[in-house]
Amino acid sequence: MKEKDVYYIPNIVSIMPNLDNFLITYYSKADKIFEYKGTNRFWGFNGDIPTDKEAKQCFNSKLTYFRDGGFLKLNTNSSNSKDGLFVKINGEIYQYNIYRGYALIKNGNGESNDYIYYIPIYRLNGINSEKITGVKTLFLWIKNDLMPTSDWFSNRKNI
Known about the structure:
By secondary structure, the chain is mainly beta. It has one domain. Helices cover 11% and strands 28% of the residues. The chain is built from two helices and 13 strands, in the order βββββαββββββββα. The strands form four sheets. The protein has a five-stranded mixed sheet with strand order 3-12-9-10-11, with no helix packed on it. Strand 6 and strand 7 form a beta hairpin. It starts with 5 loop residues before the first strand and ends in a 16-residue tail after the last helix. The mean pLDDT is 76.
């Protein structure tokens, strides 16, 4: 996006902070006491932990920007990679462990040497949203004061 350092994720109709410029926190998988120690807020948006369905659509093996082999990249400028990210399932916190074959492990269980990122998203169209039309996308962007970069419109695949 042009004036806010966020990425639009069309698969789940949400935005997330640009991981190159956002302080991402991580926690040990064996840490049974997880609180929202990381920040939910980014660029004026109050984010939330993604659901397992949303995480699967955002951080799959085809998205090399977010991947470093079997790990999840912190950002493109860093070699600091972790095992996965926190997700919500029915209001409870789980780890979506990409390194361990996309395993969903209830918070507090698992290996002590596994580390999981806390990465917030902001939903423009509700939890587990399906893809929407280009017109509705533009409406939601306007409603949320989001403006795409000029090269976004030249790529018809985005619309």
